[in-house]
Design brief:
The structure is a homodimer. Chain A is α/β, with parallel strands linked by helices. Helices cover 54% and strands 12% of the residues of chain A. In chain A, strands 3-2-4-1-5-6-7 form a 7-stranded parallel β-sheet, sandwiched between helices. Chain A contains 13 helices and 7 strands. About 3% of the residues of chain A have low confidence. At the A-B interface, helix 3, helix 6, helix 7, helix 8 and helix 11 of A face helix 3, helix 6, helix 7, helix 8 and helix 11 of B.
Chain lengths: 312, 312
């Protein structure tokens, strides 16, 4: 399949072409610019939802239940689990297979984990590209699930239209979440595993934290779910729809999306320039020796490389 | 204090100058290149230790107990807690104050949390700069503690000489850690809160995961601690020293450090080029309109900006 066939296949909603396109993003394929150019004009219709939170809070389970709910409502839905590759485990892929079984013959569902180590820009650049492919492939809803709970993961989730922060009793309290900068990016909070001890406390803590912050035009609601048996998912689904309506009616959506794509172009240009810098650095033993001997400090070395790359 | 006074003060080990220098890093001060140039030749003697792990596992407590142990051994020690700023909480600063009290009059201890939003390159660039300041200020041991457990946090911890991954029962199991890519960067594992249910299981899980992976020249040991009452800290301290000896005798240290500084120069040059790209993008309404209307895709826009910056 050459890149034009991949683009045509994505637009024709063929699962094999979609999978191939995501793999191209994952691998940082040389044909990514052509893929990007081919799908971009066909994007913008999908609603994107980010799911972030500490490991173990139940993000995958919530994603799975949301898929079922979306299908019951007649919506085409894709899940993209952003998973930094680890040679130590095939856990994520195994999870995908389990999740896939239920929808194995349903072309209106696409579930995929995506490693990002092959992509020059890491998950921050790989995620929006993959989301656009799914958008161009006609999925009404694209759910982006992150694995960790660091700044990069939060940024990825925050780049979606609606960001859901998932918490659970006993798994990193609200103060820890606040320290990680997670509260500011949330449009909706979910306290999952609500049947466990301490769930009401977590809800109360989050609400208190929210009241300490500056008033925002959208006041993030806090939901209790027990995703494993579906409790609270209908309410969450309703809130996702309400947030969507608000984004559109307030004009926030257009502004957020423009800011996101501008941010992405900046990062993309920076990554490509960084690759040129890296090549320059790799080819110059002298500058590396000076750094090693502490005769040239990192800023001075960076300056020297920039001068070579962009004279004047 | 101008930047030369700051540099002289850092080299003279004055707490006020050291604090000012760290703040300059935090704020992305214009004089950072001069600061970096001033201290770089005086670095390299400190042993650096990274502490990473999920929120709530007890990293701060371990850092505090290691400070006490280091002081008992007559070593000068600094702790740098890398904390993405949140307007919602002063938690980290409060924690610092509590931790500081014990060593308030001891000039051989420096404990500081560092936000990184003012720094162009985020924590990946701010952390090594701050570490070099502490190194130049004559601290024998510099402990770098991260708050989250995302890729960026793992990268920061991994850029230290010795990386300690902290786990605790019930707080994100080993499989989740493996998914976050954390196992590969660990030189030492600590299962903290070892007095709680499930601690032995976490230890067993980590050891199993390690055996699944490729054999590495240094086989990371797994320790049980209960940092709150000091249990296991002497053993951990001994292992840090053994890892240090191995790094030096195997020649690994020099190679690791060269790779880290080369990586940093690459990122630094890229960030500065990115700032130029951002300025270009901000000044060009036409290119933003084309992106918004999906007439120009992100790769093509990045290409256009790169051409303007580095013609030819």
């Amino acid at each position: 399949m050459d890149v034009h066939q991949v683009v045509d296949g994505v637009l024709a909603r063929e699962p094999r072409a979609i999978a191939r396109a995501i793999s191209m993003v994952e691998d940082g394929d040389d044909a990514l610019p052509a893929l990007s150019a081919g799908v971009f004009a066909h994007t913008g219709a999908a609603a994107t939802v980010g799911l972030t939170g500490a490991p173990g809070v139940g993000k995958s389970t919530i994603a799975t239940v949301l898929v079922r709910t979306a299908r019951a409502a007649g919506r085409r839905v894709a899940v993209l689990a952003i998973d930094p590759t680890s040679p130590y485990t095939g856990g994520a892929l195994l999870g995908d297979r389990v999740r896939m079984q239920e929808h194995a013959t349903d072309r209106d569902v696409f579930i995929r984990s995506m490693a990002t180590r092959g992509h020059l820009g890491g998950m921050a650049l790989a995620a929006p590209e993959a989301v656009r492919i799914l958008d161009a492939a006609g999925f009404d809803l694209v759910i982006v699930e992150t694995v960790g709970v660091g700044q990069a993961e939060i940024d990825v989730a925050a780049a979606t239209d609606t960001t859901i922060v998932v918490l659970a009793p006993g798994l990193g309290d609200a103060i820890q979440m606040a320290k990680a900068g997670i509260l500011e990016v949330a449009d909706l909070f979910v306290v999952n595993k609500a049947d466990r001890d301490g769930a009401a406390e977590v809800q109360r803590e989050v609400k208190q934290m929210l009241h300490l912050g500056a008033t925002r035009p959208w006041d993030p609601p806090v939901f209790a779910t027990a995703a494993a048996d579906g409790t609270g998912i209908d309410e969450l689904w309703g809130a996702i729809a309400r947030h969507r309506t608000w984004l559109e009616s307030s004009g926030t959506l257009a502004g957020d999306r423009e800011a996101a794509v501008v941010h992405e172009v900046r990062a993309l240009a920076a990554e490509r320039l960084a690759a040129s810098v890296a090549a320059e650095l790799a080819g110059d033993d002298g500058i590396r020796a000076k750094l090693r001997d502490r005769a040239l400090d990192p800023y001075a070395a960076a300056d020297e490389l920039i001068r070579r790359l962009a004279p004047g």
